[in-house]
Amino acid sequence: MPAGKAESGLPGEPVFAALVEDLADARRAGKEGVLAQLVNQRVVGSRFLVIKTAKDAADGKLGMRPVRDEVLAQQAGWKNIDLWQVIARQQSARTDYYLLASLDLKRGADNSIEAVSADRAIFVDALLRTIWISIVVTVICAVLAVPLAQAIVSAPPAWSKLMFALILFPLWTSLLVRTVIWIIVLQKNGPVNSTLLGLGIVSEPLDLIYTRFSLYLAMVQVLLPMMVLSVVAVMRRVPTTYMRAALSLGAPWLTAWRRVQLPLILPGILSGGAIVFVFALGYYITPTLVGGPTDQMISSYIAFYTNSTLNWGMGAALSLQLLMILVLFAFLFWTASVLFRSKAHVV
Protein backbone atom coordinates (compact mmCIF):
# COMPACT_ATOMS: atom_id res chain seq x y z
CA MET A 1 0.00 0.00 0.00
CA PRO A 2 1.42 3.44 -0.87
CA ALA A 3 2.74 5.76 1.80
CA GLY A 4 0.19 7.84 3.60
CA LYS A 5 -2.21 4.95 4.21
CA ALA A 6 -5.15 6.06 6.30
CA GLU A 7 -6.83 4.14 9.09
CA SER A 8 -9.76 3.17 6.85
CA GLY A 9 -7.40 1.17 4.66
CA LEU A 10 -7.40 3.79 1.92
CA PRO A 11 -4.36 5.89 1.02
CA GLY A 12 -3.89 9.29 2.59
CA GLU A 13 -4.12 12.81 1.25
CA PRO A 14 -0.74 12.86 -0.60
CA VAL A 15 -1.61 9.79 -2.61
CA PHE A 16 -5.03 11.15 -3.60
CA ALA A 17 -3.42 14.46 -4.59
CA ALA A 18 -0.91 12.61 -6.77
CA LEU A 19 -3.73 10.53 -8.27
CA VAL A 20 -5.70 13.61 -9.26
CA GLU A 21 -2.63 15.26 -10.76
CA ASP A 22 -1.66 12.14 -12.74
CA LEU A 23 -5.18 11.59 -14.05
CA ALA A 24 -5.42 15.24 -15.08
CA ASP A 25 -2.14 14.91 -16.99
CA ALA A 26 -3.39 11.71 -18.64
CA ARG A 27 -6.61 13.48 -19.67
CA ARG A 28 -4.69 16.39 -21.21
CA ALA A 29 -2.44 13.93 -23.07
CA GLY A 30 -5.48 11.99 -24.34
CA LYS A 31 -4.32 8.78 -22.67
CA GLU A 32 -7.01 8.38 -20.02
CA GLY A 33 -8.79 5.78 -22.18
CA VAL A 34 -5.71 3.55 -22.37
CA LEU A 35 -5.12 3.98 -18.65
CA ALA A 36 -8.76 3.15 -17.88
CA GLN A 37 -8.57 0.06 -20.06
CA LEU A 38 -5.48 -1.20 -18.25
CA VAL A 39 -7.07 -0.66 -14.83
CA ASN A 40 -10.33 -2.22 -15.98
CA GLN A 41 -8.50 -5.39 -17.10
CA ARG A 42 -7.37 -5.87 -13.52
CA VAL A 43 -10.46 -4.58 -11.68
CA VAL A 44 -13.50 -5.16 -13.84
CA GLY A 45 -15.93 -2.25 -13.84
CA SER A 46 -13.41 0.47 -13.05
CA ARG A 47 -13.08 1.93 -16.56
CA PHE A 48 -15.77 4.56 -16.20
CA LEU A 49 -14.49 5.48 -12.75
CA VAL A 50 -11.01 6.26 -14.09
CA ILE A 51 -12.28 8.20 -17.11
CA LYS A 52 -14.76 10.25 -15.05
CA THR A 53 -12.18 11.02 -12.38
CA ALA A 54 -9.65 12.04 -15.03
CA LYS A 55 -12.19 14.36 -16.67
CA ASP A 56 -13.13 15.97 -13.35
CA ALA A 57 -9.45 16.33 -12.43
CA ALA A 58 -8.62 18.03 -15.74
CA ASP A 59 -11.65 20.34 -15.37
CA GLY A 60 -10.49 21.39 -11.91
CA LYS A 61 -13.48 19.90 -10.09
CA LEU A 62 -11.26 18.01 -7.64
CA GLY A 63 -9.05 20.92 -6.59
CA MET A 64 -10.65 21.58 -3.21
CA ARG A 65 -8.80 20.53 -0.02
CA PRO A 66 -8.69 17.94 1.27
CA VAL A 67 -8.50 16.23 -2.12
CA ARG A 68 -9.02 12.80 -0.57
CA ASP A 69 -12.44 13.70 0.81
CA GLU A 70 -13.41 15.48 -2.40
CA VAL A 71 -12.53 12.46 -4.59
CA LEU A 72 -14.29 9.98 -2.31
CA ALA A 73 -17.38 12.21 -2.13
CA GLN A 74 -17.68 12.50 -5.92
CA GLN A 75 -16.37 9.05 -6.95
CA ALA A 76 -17.21 6.42 -4.34
CA GLY A 77 -15.52 3.76 -6.46
CA TRP A 78 -12.17 4.89 -5.10
CA LYS A 79 -13.17 3.39 -1.74
CA ASN A 80 -12.51 -0.03 -3.27
CA ILE A 81 -9.45 -1.41 -1.45
CA ASP A 82 -8.79 -3.96 -4.24
CA LEU A 83 -8.41 -1.13 -6.72
CA TRP A 84 -5.72 0.54 -4.62
CA GLN A 85 -3.92 -2.78 -4.11
CA VAL A 86 -3.79 -3.28 -7.86
CA ILE A 87 -2.43 0.24 -8.37
CA ALA A 88 0.18 -0.32 -5.66
CA ARG A 89 1.42 -3.49 -7.40
CA GLN A 90 1.92 -1.63 -10.70
CA GLN A 91 4.72 0.60 -9.44
CA SER A 92 7.29 -1.36 -11.47
CA ALA A 93 7.58 -1.03 -15.24
CA ARG A 94 7.46 -4.84 -15.42
CA THR A 95 4.49 -6.95 -14.45
CA ASP A 96 3.62 -10.62 -14.40
CA TYR A 97 -0.09 -9.88 -14.58
CA TYR A 98 -0.64 -11.15 -18.12
CA LEU A 99 1.55 -14.23 -17.73
CA LEU A 100 -0.33 -15.20 -14.58
CA ALA A 101 -3.70 -14.41 -16.15
CA SER A 102 -2.84 -16.60 -19.17
CA LEU A 103 -2.42 -19.48 -16.70
CA ASP A 104 -5.63 -18.67 -14.81
CA LEU A 105 -3.63 -17.23 -11.91
CA LYS A 106 -3.51 -13.85 -10.19
CA ARG A 107 -1.88 -11.99 -7.36
CA GLY A 108 -3.81 -12.11 -4.11
CA ALA A 109 -4.23 -9.40 -1.51
CA ASP A 110 -0.95 -10.47 0.15
CA ASN A 111 0.80 -10.51 -3.25
CA SER A 112 0.84 -14.32 -3.30
CA ILE A 113 -0.08 -16.24 -6.48
CA GLU A 114 -3.51 -17.84 -6.37
CA ALA A 115 -6.00 -19.33 -8.82
CA VAL A 116 -8.70 -17.15 -10.32
CA SER A 117 -12.35 -17.97 -9.77
CA ALA A 118 -13.81 -20.88 -11.73
CA ASP A 119 -15.92 -18.62 -13.96
CA ARG A 120 -12.78 -16.79 -15.14
CA ALA A 121 -10.54 -19.86 -15.55
CA ILE A 122 -10.61 -20.48 -19.32
CA PHE A 123 -7.05 -20.37 -20.64
CA VAL A 124 -5.60 -23.56 -19.14
CA ASP A 125 -8.53 -25.58 -20.49
CA ALA A 126 -8.05 -23.95 -23.90
CA LEU A 127 -4.35 -24.71 -23.81
CA LEU A 128 -4.85 -28.37 -22.85
CA ARG A 129 -7.59 -28.67 -25.48
CA THR A 130 -5.24 -27.24 -28.11
CA ILE A 131 -2.51 -29.73 -27.23
CA TRP A 132 -4.95 -32.66 -27.18
CA ILE A 133 -6.53 -31.78 -30.54
CA SER A 134 -3.06 -31.35 -32.09
CA ILE A 135 -1.92 -34.74 -30.75
CA VAL A 136 -5.05 -36.54 -31.98
CA VAL A 137 -4.78 -34.96 -35.43
CA THR A 138 -1.09 -35.90 -35.62
CA VAL A 139 -1.79 -39.53 -34.65
CA ILE A 140 -4.65 -39.85 -37.15
CA CYS A 141 -2.48 -38.38 -39.91
CA ALA A 142 0.31 -40.82 -39.07
CA VAL A 143 -2.03 -43.83 -39.10
CA LEU A 144 -3.50 -42.82 -42.47
CA ALA A 145 -0.24 -41.67 -44.04
CA VAL A 146 1.68 -44.94 -43.68
CA PRO A 147 -0.62 -47.12 -45.86
CA LEU A 148 -1.07 -44.26 -48.32
CA ALA A 149 2.69 -43.82 -48.62
CA GLN A 150 3.15 -47.58 -48.98
CA ALA A 151 0.58 -47.64 -51.77
CA ILE A 152 2.32 -44.78 -53.57
CA VAL A 153 5.75 -46.38 -53.27
CA SER A 154 4.58 -49.88 -54.24
CA ALA A 155 2.38 -48.86 -57.18
CA PRO A 156 3.57 -48.90 -60.81
CA PRO A 157 5.18 -45.58 -61.85
CA ALA A 158 2.11 -44.24 -63.68
CA TRP A 159 -0.26 -45.01 -60.81
CA SER A 160 2.28 -43.79 -58.28
CA LYS A 161 2.47 -40.39 -60.01
CA LEU A 162 -1.32 -40.17 -60.20
CA MET A 163 -1.77 -40.98 -56.49
CA PHE A 164 1.00 -38.56 -55.59
CA ALA A 165 -0.71 -35.81 -57.57
CA LEU A 166 -4.03 -36.53 -55.85
CA ILE A 167 -2.33 -36.29 -52.46
CA LEU A 168 -0.70 -32.97 -53.39
CA PHE A 169 -3.78 -31.48 -55.03
CA PRO A 170 -5.34 -30.14 -51.76
CA LEU A 171 -2.15 -28.19 -51.05
CA TRP A 172 -2.79 -26.12 -54.17
CA THR A 173 -6.18 -25.03 -52.85
CA SER A 174 -6.76 -22.24 -50.36
CA LEU A 175 -7.09 -23.35 -46.73
CA LEU A 176 -10.20 -21.22 -46.36
CA VAL A 177 -11.81 -22.84 -49.40
CA ARG A 178 -11.04 -26.34 -48.15
CA THR A 179 -12.51 -25.51 -44.74
CA VAL A 180 -15.68 -23.95 -46.14
CA ILE A 181 -16.22 -27.01 -48.34
CA TRP A 182 -16.47 -29.14 -45.20
CA ILE A 183 -19.24 -26.86 -43.91
CA ILE A 184 -21.18 -27.54 -47.11
CA VAL A 185 -20.50 -31.28 -47.06
CA LEU A 186 -21.31 -31.85 -43.39
CA GLN A 187 -24.30 -29.55 -42.91
CA LYS A 188 -27.72 -31.06 -42.17
CA ASN A 189 -28.92 -30.85 -45.76
CA GLY A 190 -25.48 -31.60 -47.20
CA PRO A 191 -24.47 -34.59 -49.31
CA VAL A 192 -23.38 -36.75 -46.35
CA ASN A 193 -26.65 -36.45 -44.46
CA SER A 194 -28.64 -36.73 -47.71
CA THR A 195 -26.85 -39.99 -48.55
CA LEU A 196 -27.37 -41.45 -45.08
CA LEU A 197 -31.06 -40.53 -45.18
CA GLY A 198 -31.43 -41.88 -48.72
CA LEU A 199 -29.89 -45.23 -47.74
CA GLY A 200 -32.10 -45.41 -44.66
CA ILE A 201 -29.12 -45.58 -42.31
CA VAL A 202 -30.45 -42.69 -40.21
CA SER A 203 -33.97 -41.40 -39.74
CA GLU A 204 -33.02 -37.75 -39.25
CA PRO A 205 -29.99 -35.61 -40.20
CA LEU A 206 -26.96 -35.96 -37.96
CA ASP A 207 -25.23 -33.02 -36.29
CA LEU A 208 -21.91 -33.44 -38.11
CA ILE A 209 -20.78 -29.84 -38.44
CA TYR A 210 -19.62 -27.58 -35.58
CA THR A 211 -18.51 -30.61 -33.57
CA ARG A 212 -15.17 -32.09 -32.49
CA PHE A 213 -15.64 -34.74 -35.21
CA SER A 214 -15.90 -32.12 -37.96
CA LEU A 215 -12.87 -30.34 -36.55
CA TYR A 216 -10.76 -33.51 -36.63
CA LEU A 217 -12.01 -34.36 -40.11
CA ALA A 218 -11.19 -30.95 -41.58
CA MET A 219 -7.79 -30.67 -39.92
CA VAL A 220 -6.74 -34.18 -40.93
CA GLN A 221 -7.79 -33.54 -44.53
CA VAL A 222 -5.73 -30.35 -44.60
CA LEU A 223 -2.63 -31.69 -42.87
CA LEU A 224 -2.49 -35.28 -44.16
CA PRO A 225 -0.51 -34.42 -47.35
CA MET A 226 2.35 -33.07 -45.24
CA MET A 227 2.62 -36.34 -43.35
CA VAL A 228 2.38 -38.40 -46.54
CA LEU A 229 5.15 -36.40 -48.20
CA SER A 230 7.46 -36.95 -45.26
CA VAL A 231 6.79 -40.69 -45.04
CA VAL A 232 7.08 -41.25 -48.80
CA ALA A 233 10.45 -39.49 -48.86
CA VAL A 234 11.83 -41.96 -46.30
CA MET A 235 9.98 -45.04 -47.58
CA ARG A 236 11.43 -44.66 -51.09
CA ARG A 237 14.92 -45.14 -49.62
CA VAL A 238 14.03 -48.43 -47.89
CA PRO A 239 14.86 -51.42 -50.15
CA THR A 240 11.87 -53.70 -50.69
CA THR A 241 14.18 -56.70 -50.36
CA TYR A 242 14.28 -56.22 -46.59
CA MET A 243 10.60 -57.11 -46.16
CA ARG A 244 10.83 -59.95 -48.68
CA ALA A 245 13.83 -61.37 -46.84
CA ALA A 246 11.99 -61.23 -43.50
CA LEU A 247 8.90 -62.91 -44.99
CA SER A 248 10.99 -65.58 -46.71
CA LEU A 249 12.52 -66.45 -43.36
CA GLY A 250 9.08 -67.25 -42.00
CA ALA A 251 8.17 -64.10 -40.13
CA PRO A 252 4.46 -63.17 -40.17
CA TRP A 253 3.77 -60.07 -42.26
CA LEU A 254 2.83 -57.94 -39.26
CA THR A 255 5.95 -58.99 -37.34
CA ALA A 256 8.17 -58.37 -40.36
CA TRP A 257 6.62 -54.94 -40.89
CA ARG A 258 6.88 -54.01 -37.21
CA ARG A 259 10.48 -55.18 -36.76
CA VAL A 260 11.94 -54.40 -40.19
CA GLN A 261 9.91 -51.76 -42.04
CA LEU A 262 8.65 -49.61 -39.19
CA PRO A 263 12.05 -48.77 -37.60
CA LEU A 264 13.36 -47.71 -41.00
CA ILE A 265 10.46 -45.40 -41.83
CA LEU A 266 10.04 -44.10 -38.29
CA PRO A 267 12.27 -41.03 -38.89
CA GLY A 268 9.87 -40.00 -41.66
CA ILE A 269 6.85 -40.52 -39.41
CA LEU A 270 8.46 -38.45 -36.68
CA SER A 271 9.44 -35.68 -39.08
CA GLY A 272 5.94 -35.60 -40.54
CA GLY A 273 4.44 -35.76 -37.06
CA ALA A 274 6.48 -32.76 -35.98
CA ILE A 275 5.35 -30.77 -39.02
CA VAL A 276 1.68 -31.70 -38.59
CA PHE A 277 1.74 -31.04 -34.86
CA VAL A 278 3.30 -27.59 -35.30
CA PHE A 279 0.72 -26.60 -37.89
CA ALA A 280 -2.16 -28.02 -35.85
CA LEU A 281 -1.02 -26.23 -32.72
CA GLY A 282 -1.41 -22.83 -34.35
CA TYR A 283 -4.60 -23.53 -36.28
CA TYR A 284 -7.12 -20.71 -36.19
CA ILE A 285 -9.39 -20.63 -39.26
CA THR A 286 -10.49 -24.28 -39.25
CA PRO A 287 -11.45 -24.51 -35.53
CA THR A 288 -13.24 -21.18 -35.81
CA LEU A 289 -15.30 -22.20 -38.85
CA VAL A 290 -16.08 -25.89 -38.32
CA GLY A 291 -15.43 -26.45 -34.60
CA GLY A 292 -18.04 -26.23 -31.88
CA PRO A 293 -18.23 -23.58 -29.14
CA THR A 294 -16.11 -25.76 -26.85
CA ASP A 295 -13.56 -26.64 -29.55
CA GLN A 296 -11.89 -23.26 -29.91
CA MET A 297 -8.12 -23.45 -29.70
CA ILE A 298 -5.70 -21.05 -28.07
CA SER A 299 -5.04 -19.27 -31.39
CA SER A 300 -8.66 -18.08 -31.41
CA TYR A 301 -8.09 -16.32 -28.09
CA ILE A 302 -4.85 -14.77 -29.37
CA ALA A 303 -6.70 -13.46 -32.43
CA PHE A 304 -9.49 -12.14 -30.20
CA TYR A 305 -7.14 -10.20 -27.94
CA THR A 306 -5.02 -8.81 -30.77
CA ASN A 307 -7.79 -7.97 -33.25
CA SER A 308 -10.90 -7.27 -31.17
CA THR A 309 -9.95 -5.97 -27.72
CA LEU A 310 -6.41 -4.80 -28.61
CA ASN A 311 -5.17 -6.37 -25.40
CA TRP A 312 -1.62 -6.85 -26.64
CA GLY A 313 -0.36 -7.97 -23.23
CA MET A 314 -2.73 -10.92 -22.99
CA GLY A 315 -2.21 -11.80 -26.64
CA ALA A 316 1.56 -11.82 -26.13
CA ALA A 317 1.28 -13.94 -22.96
CA LEU A 318 -0.84 -16.56 -24.74
CA SER A 319 1.52 -16.52 -27.72
CA LEU A 320 4.45 -17.10 -25.38
CA GLN A 321 2.68 -20.15 -23.95
CA LEU A 322 2.16 -21.50 -27.45
CA LEU A 323 5.83 -20.91 -28.25
CA MET A 324 6.96 -22.73 -25.11
CA ILE A 325 4.79 -25.73 -25.97
CA LEU A 326 6.21 -25.68 -29.48
CA VAL A 327 9.79 -25.70 -28.17
CA LEU A 328 8.98 -28.51 -25.73
CA PHE A 329 7.39 -30.77 -28.33
CA ALA A 330 10.09 -29.95 -30.89
CA PHE A 331 12.64 -31.16 -28.37
CA LEU A 332 10.60 -34.33 -27.72
CA PHE A 333 10.27 -35.07 -31.46
CA TRP A 334 13.99 -34.47 -31.97
CA THR A 335 14.91 -36.70 -29.04
CA ALA A 336 12.62 -39.49 -30.24
CA SER A 337 14.02 -39.23 -33.76
CA VAL A 338 17.61 -39.48 -32.52
CA LEU A 339 16.82 -42.46 -30.30
CA PHE A 340 15.02 -44.39 -33.03
CA ARG A 341 17.68 -43.57 -35.63
CA SER A 342 20.30 -44.88 -33.27
CA LYS A 343 18.30 -48.02 -32.56
CA ALA A 344 17.71 -48.69 -36.24
CA HIS A 345 21.38 -47.91 -37.04
CA VAL A 346 20.24 -45.24 -39.47
CA VAL A 347 22.08 -41.96 -39.00
The biggest sheet amounts to: 2 strands, antiparallel
Strand content: under 5%
**SS-based structural class?**
mainly alpha
Quick one: overall form? Answer: elongated
Topology as a string of helices (H) and strands (E): HHHHHHEEHHHHHHHHHH
Radius of gyration: 29 Å
Strand order of the largest sheet: 1-2
- Mean of residue pLDDT? 85
Number of helices: 16
- Please bin the fraction of helical residues: 55-70%
Number of strands: 2
Q: Which residue ranges are poorly predicted, with pLDDT under 50 across at least 5 consecutive positions?
A: 1-7
- Cα distance, first to last residue? 61 Å
Notes on the protein architecture:
This protein is an all-alpha fold. The protein is 68% helix and 2% strand. It contains 16 helices and two strands. It has helices at residues 13-28, 32-42, 47-58, 67-74, 81-89, 97-101, 123-154, 157-168, 175-186, 191-198, 212-235, 241-248, 253-281, 285-290, 298-308, 312-343, and strands at residues 105-107, 113-115. Strands 1-2 form a two-stranded antiparallel sheet. A hairpin with a 5-residue loop joins strand 1 and strand 2. Helix 1 crosses helix 3 (47-58), helix 1 (13-28) packs across helix 4 and helix 7 (123-154) packs antiparallel against helix 8. The longest helix has 32 residues, at 123-154. The relative contact order is 0.09. The model is unreliable at 1-7 (pLDDT under 50).
